Amino acid sequence: MLRYVFRRLLTAIPTLLVIVTMAFFLIRVAPGGPFNQERGLSPEIKANLEAQFGLNDPLWLQYVHYLGNLLRGNFGPSYNMPDFTVGELFARGLPVSIQIGASALILALLLGCLLGTIAALNQNKLADYSVIALATAGSTIPTFVIAPVIQLLFGLTWKLLPIGGWGDGALLNKIGPVLTLALPQIAIVARLMRGSMIESLRSHHIRTARALGLSDWSVVVKHALRGAILPIVSFTGPAAAALLTGSIIVETIFSIPGIGRYFVEAALNRDYTLVMGTVVVIALFTIVFNLIVDVMYAFVDPRVRYD
Amino acid sequence: MDASETILSVKDLRVRFRTLDGVVEAVKGINIHVNAGETVAVVGESGSGKSQTMMAAMSLLASNGEATGVVDYRGRNLLTLSKSELNQVRGRRISMIFQEPMTSLDPLYSIGNQLIEPIRRHRGLGAAQAREEALKLLRLVYIPDPERRMKSYPHELSGGQRQRVMIAMALANDPDILIADEPTTALDLTIQAQILMLLAELQRKLGMAIVFITHDLGIVRRLADRVYVMRYGEVVEEGEAEAIFVNPQHAYTKMLLAAEPTGIKAPPPPNAPVLLEGRNVEVTFKIGGGFLAGEPLILRAVDHISIRLKRNQTIGIVGESGSGKSTLGRALLRLLPSDGLIRFGDRDISAADRQAMRPLRRELQLVFQDPFGSLSPRMTVGQVITEGLLVHEPILSGRQRDLRAVEALREVGLDPNARNRYPHEFSGGQRQRIAIARAMILKPKVVVLDEPTSALDRSVQKQIVELLRKLQADHELSYLFISHDLAVVRAMADYIIVMKQGKIVEEGPTEAIFSNPQATYTQTLMAAAIDVTRFRLSA
Amino acid sequence: MTDIVATAPAVVGRSLWGDAWARLKANRAAMFSLYYLAFIAILSVFGPSLVPHRYTTIYADYVRMPPSLSAYPKPDKIETALNEAIKRMRVDIKQWRQEDNRIFVTVTSHKPIDDRNVRYLDRSDAFDNTKIESKSADGLEAVMSASIRQQYFLFGTDNTGRDLLSRTLMAGRISLAIGLLAGVVAGVIGVLYGAAAGLAGGKVDEVMMRIVDVLYSLPFIFFVIMLVVFFGRNFVLMFLAVGAVLWLDMARIVRGQALSIRRQEYVQAAEAMGVGQRGILIRHVIPNLLGPVVIYMTLLVPQVIILESFLSFLGLGVQEPMTSWGVLISTGSKNIGTANWLLLFPAFFLVSTLFALNFVGDGLRDALDPRDR
Fold first, then answer.
1. Where in this chain does the record put each ABC transmembrane type-1 domain (chain A) (predicted)?
2. N or C: which end of chain A has fewer CB within 10 A?
3. What is the C-alpha to C-alpha distance for residues B233 and A137, in angstroms, rounded to an integer?
4. Minimal CA–CA distance to B179: which of A216, A212, A220?
């Protein structure tokens, strides 16, 4: 197992390198530069700034410098927010994004599995149809519709929640964003769980368990659920990576200081270092969570062996 | 125990399934009873409702199924019991084993865990005691090294071992009745015999009644005390086993009894020309390997095999699963890359590529085992049959092709008017006829038949065997008949090759092999085939 | 049976496609959704030219008017509008009255009144056809008449006074067109790539799928934003590019299907008959691939529509004055406090369309792949 993890991490290095390289050159090829937008910069100051950040060096040299800095864990300074380094921006924004994302993920997994199981056990009955309806709605309505509707209902009409803002992490401020982020995921998990649970309940070993007179609890929870959970485990990897690195929509609409907002702003402003930093963070999260999920998979399913 | 005491009686049982095409009645009001300690066989072909009868009795029907009637076990109607009452009976008084040993155990839990669970549940034993019991059970069903096996997972066991574990689980609580639903069908012949022997021994030791659900009359013959014959959801005949076999009353029973393929194939004249020849044919597969994955595993599926197929000859290739018999058939047709020499007529085709093989393909045909998978589901039967003509006789007009399709369908005994229908509208036997017509329309010289009857009911098997024989006689065909079914091979082939793990164990004329097998493996195989039909469960 | 029978027209069977169509027709939710989609499509294509307002016309007097079934200007608003227009003439109202659909206003001034002053009334969105009815001899007093312009804003108007109905329909046209366009682009690329990998197999397949894996682990939004940066605001080009990004799933699905079809016995049977690669592709692989491709296309189109709305929401997609549902929802979400109809109408159109697409997709899946009975 350890060897497998080690090998996976080893193969992650070239993947990461490819991503970093592609991202680096793609954004550099794009027209414009970090100091073009700022009006009133005299050409001398602009030239000065570019020289200071090494933007006049040949591209390959900049690339080598960037890789070198990255290896030392240094993401470089942000061009558009000169008071901060990219590392500092992440240090402030990432905890916020992770809090919201992790809460949404946990909520989605618990509620989604529960709803999916209830639906599967009551296939083609009212409970099942209700869950299907909920799941369809959740996976069909985009977040940029859910979020303002939540604001409209809970914030403006019923005045239960603040309309937006972080409020230094107050619980009430988190409810809206977490709900918005979680709803589509709940829908996906519930659907996935319903499908795999129905299949699991139909499998031959469940028939065996029933024929042996085992209790419903054992049949459903011990035998059916454990097999049905496998697709959910696979789903969790990419989902965790996506949720924990922040959502542009949710952070924009609810005015939350996470890292999800950085990316678009940075790309439009050609804040090269911030764009690159975000790409690296997202890629890292993706790789790490996929690895964690594969390891977890082996714990749930003894047929999966890594060596 | 009073042998005449009736412990289970099924009265006017009906089973219905709600489907998209309306309600289907799978079991139509049948009556069956089981006495203590006896062996009852419920025999029928696919779709007879034999399995659903027992599933209904055990309340194991699929969610769209519904049973009415009475299933009386010692005075209690199982169909009306509450779930918890039912679970006092299931696995405790009545137990069941299934056809699919590969999937009937939970893949995620160890054997020990799964064995201990029903023991603890029904007998309320502590963990340590239950573990002792489980070990005892594993020894009872002759699982070697039971201590170690307790920790194994189902995928680490062979098919036969899994079925033994399944039996151990079913017998864990000393039940009155064991329902065995086709328990040996998915297993190799030698394993089948072992499992049947085990069941017979356990019945002697423990004295439970066995309800044996099977399509295989061969097994039923010596194994059961009483037999119920089912067709289309009804019991058409019942009685003492001997009586049914000696003096069947119902036409269907007679047909089933006569369904065992009979007859022999005369060998071709000694001077018949050799059509297809393989010398030292070898096929290897590479498993795994690649970047960072270590050395690949080399699997030699066909290991230096030589074979000579003469005109009008049928060579039967016999072997259990994994013996390499199908691989050999495909390699000889150059559908798989292989080493060694392969000749067709006087041509060396060992190195022929796709292009070079194409004109020869019409003379070298292949019929598959699974008539459901081998016909393209989106083509009409006419299109399926005439596809080869597009390649080999491209000058034919659409109308000429149509006429050839009519001719080919008639030759295999199908209504030519059905040629615009689609494969899914036909039964298994009819589909296999279509597959044969597809091969025959090209007027081939050699046909490789890869288990062409194994997916079919016995009665249909016999028809297909007869069809193949007639076609061979009409067209002087040469067959390579690949099968695990000794009865069918005996009726079809004049020469037999016995394969095991990619090697030829023994070969010779059919009668010589059957009457006087030399190799130990062949003897085991023959003995198993006879044992399977000779076994008697009840003491 | 005689020979004549054999050549008689044979019984026609029902193909799997026929079965699927019959099953789809029996699925009420899917059929209703199909009709609804057709309705929305027709509305979006022809609607914008049928409604009285162009989607770009600005009615400065009708900023953020709530949706209403009755005509604007409302009776109480007529005087306000009149006062405003008269004020711009720099004259004073002496009196005014309304007769049917026309108003008559008497104005006075200390300078002679210029006839061209009528344009101030015409310029107001509330009136047109202004005439000077009479004028006093000294020119200091005049009676003007103007007809009241009755305008309907069924969905209300937006922040700059544009009719939301025409904008919503126009947005529908853009969103649906983009969904279809980018969906088809993604579908074609995915099918070609996936089929090529699946059919080639072996090393080629391995390399091609490795490339897909790498593209998968690149943050998707990064790609899209790069495309925006490259293609600027040309939305047609951009959505061709977006389509070019969304093909990954399709490629995986098609490749998997192609691989499994190749392993099917009926393909082996065709190979054993000497059928060439082309024949196998045309007669066996493509017809059997079509089902999964159709099913996945119905998933792809809503995905693209959502993506378009998402980008437009961020201000990266369609640009003003052109509009799409995403643009409208974005405006709406910024005005939920004061003008919630700006959110509700476009959101309803978008969500109901997505629902319908979803039901059609589910229906098609059930119809084409009925294993899960």
1. 94-293
2. C
3. 44
4. A212
Which of A235-249, B80-94, C77-91, C195-209 is the least confident region?
Answer: C77-91
* DSSP string over C335-365: TTTT-THHHHHHHHHHHHHHHHHHHHHHHHH
> Which residue spans within B419-477 are E strands per DSSP?
446-450
Helix-helix angle C220-231:C286-313, to 10 degrees? 70
- Partners of C173 in beta bridges: none
A105, exposed or middle or buried, with CB in 10 Å at 0-12, 13-18, 19+?
buried
Token reading at B412: 């295999």
Q: Do C355 and A142 touch (CB under 8 A)?
A: no
Mean pLDDT of chain B: 88
Name the helix (H) or strand (E) containing B316. strand B314-318
Q: Return the SS3 of B508.
A: strand
What is d(CA B250, CA B419) in angstroms, rounded to the nearest whole number?
A: 35
Contact state of B390 with C276 under an 8 Å Cβ cutoff: no
For chain B, list the contacting chains (3+ Cβ pairs, <8 Å). Answer: A, C
Assign residue B62 a region (left: φ > 0; alpha: ψ between -120 and 50; beta: otherwise): beta
Q: Which residue of C has its CA nearest to A19?
A: C218
Put simply, the answer to whether A213 touches B89 (Cβ < 8 Å) is yes
Predicted complex ipTM: 0.80
Question: How many angstroms separate the CA atoms of B505 and B479, rounded?
Answer: 20
Sign (positive or negative) of CA dihedral C370, C371, C372, C373: positive
Number of H-type helices and E-type strands within chain A = 13, 0
Compare CB distances from A136 to C222, C347, C358 and report the shortest one's residue.
Answer: C358
CB B439 within 8 A of CB B411: no
Q: Number of C-alpha atoms within 13 angstroms, CB side, residue B429?
A: 17
Q: Which residues in chain C are closer than 8 Å to B415, comparing Cβ atoms?
A: 1
Going by C-alpha positions, the residue among A4, A3, A98 that lies closest to residue A294 is: A4
**Which one of C10, C265, C269 has the shortest CB-CB distance to B417?**
C10
Tell me phi and psi for residue C102, to 5 degrees.
-120, 150
- The per-residue pLDDT for range C141-176, each reduced to its tens digit, is 888 888 888 788 888 888 888 888 999 999 999 889
**B91, pLDDT greater than 70:** yes
Distance between CA atoms of B242 and B220, rounded to whole angstroms? 10
Please judge whether C283 and B19 are an interchain contact, meaning their C-beta atoms are less than 8 angstroms apart. no
Q: Is the dihedral of CA C277, C283, C286, C288 positive or negative?
A: negative
**Contacts for C84-87 with beta carbons within 8 Å, 24 or more apart?**
C84/C124, C85/C120, C85/C121, C85/C123, C85/C124, C85/C126, C85/C127, C86/C120, C86/C121
Query: Which residues between 393 and 412 in chain B have a beta carbon less than 8 angstroms from any beta carbon of chain C?
Result: 403, 406, 410
Q: What pLDDT shows up at residue C218? A: 66
The chains found to touch A (3+ Cβ pairs under 8 angstroms) are B, C
**Share in percent of chain B as helix, strand, coil (round to 5):** 40, 25, 35
Residues of chain B with C-beta less than 8 angstroms from the C-beta of C266: 373-377, 384
Which residues of chain C are within 8 Å of residue A141 when distances are taken between CB atoms? Answer: 351, 354
Q: What are phi and psi of B255, to 5 degrees?
A: -60, -45
Tokens of C127: 């009136």
Helix H or strand E encompassing B257: helix B251-257
Of B333, B368, B416, the CB nearest to C6: B416
| Predicted TM-score (pTM) of this structure | 0.82
In this structure, of B173-182, B192-201, B260-269, C26-35, the range with the lowest mean pLDDT score is: B260-269
Pick from B424, B317, B322: which is nearest to B371 by CA?
A: B424
pLDDT confidence of B526, banded at 50, 70, 90?
confident
